[in-house]
Amino acid sequence: MLIFAHRGASGYAPENTLKAMALALELEAEAVELDVHNVEGELVVFHDRRLEGKSNGKGLIHRHTLAELEKLSVRGEPIPTLWQVLELLNARCIVNIELKGIHTGEPMKALYHRAVAELGYSPEQLLISSFNHPELADFKADVPEARIAPLLGSLPLDGAAIAGQMQAWSLHLDVSFISQTIVDQAHAMGVKVYVYTVDDGDDIRALAAMGVDGVFANYPDLARKALGEP
Ligand code: G3P
Ligand code: CA
């Protein structure tokens, strides 16, 4: 089972920061997940649309300049750009980039090619996901070699078919809506199932027993231990 350090090792360090990503590597996470927004054409790693709550800033993140964001922090840690995170991880793990904000697909296309050409990432190491399925489909149309993953926050009747039609690598599902049926339907389409966000050992073992292919965990080391791995 593939374990993604969710927003980096966010159980131990401020989420979506370089510190959380470095810690994920230290904990030998095979994969990390992060969220991006478009700020002045640059992809910035941050979860919420608004700055308050997760940082010491205020307002919608995409209405700010990069220079303004540089002055802010997430519990003492800077808000990184996606490029800074990709440089730090240096193709040492799988990176799931969630296109969170609006207009993130276009800058992601350019960054995807740069990450492969300049940092040595392989297409197998970059997984682009989003709740915004049109943005994801557009990304796949322009970067056909890319692995993409639709996110579902609920369970429509045709959840697996959506992923199959999009030629998705994986379908990302909320743990609240997981069922054996959707796992089997996705697998029948040749699509993997990754489930968010799971930190309870019993839950992780139950998902493994259902054939779920991966989970997003805030404590990736504990998730691994729950599966009996060192
Ligand atoms: O990508 C899985 C998960 O991160 C989606 O939910 O709100 O944590 O971005 P959220
Ligand atoms: Ca996310």
What is the count of β-strands? Answer: 11
Arithmetic mean pLDDT: 97
Rounded Rg: 17 Å
Structural class: alpha/beta
Q: Do you know the CATH topology?
A: TIM Barrel
Shape designation? globular
State the share of residues found in helices, binned by percent.
25-40%
Number of helices: 9
Largest sheet: spatial strand order: 1-2-6-7-8-9-10-11
Name the bound molecules.
SN-glycerol-3-phosphate, calcium ion
CATH architecture: Alpha-Beta Barrel
Domain GP-PDE: 1-227
Pfam families: GDPD (PF03009)
InterPro entries: GP_PDE_dom, PLC-like_Pdiesterase_TIM-brl
Protein name: Glycerophosphoryl diester phosphodiesterase
Entry summary:
The chain has helices at residues 18-26, 66-70, 82-89, 105-119, 133-142, 159-165, 180-188, 201-210, 220-226, and strands at 2-6, 31-39, 42-45, 73-74, 77-78, 94-99, 126-130, 147-152, 170-174, 192-196, 214-217.
Question: What does it look like?
Answer:
The chain has 230 residues and is α/β, with parallel strands linked by helices. The chain has a single domain (2-226), classed as TIM Barrel (Alpha-Beta Barrel). It contains nine helices and eleven strands. It has helices spanning 18-26, 66-70, 82-89, 105-119, 133-142, 159-165, 180-188, 201-210, 220-226; strands at 2-6, 31-39, 42-45, 73-74, 77-78, 94-99, 126-130, 147-152, 170-174, 192-196, 214-217. The strands form two sheets. An eight-stranded parallel β-barrel has the order 1-2-6-7-8-9-10-11, surrounded by six helices. It has a two-stranded antiparallel ribbon with strand order 4-5. Helix 4 (105-119) links the parallel strand 6 and strand 7 (126-130). The protein is globular, with a radius of gyration of 17 Å. The two termini are 13 Å apart. Bound molecules: SN-glycerol-3-phosphate (G3P) and calcium ion. Calcium ion is lined by residues 33, 35, 98. One of its GO terms (biological process) is lipid metabolic process.
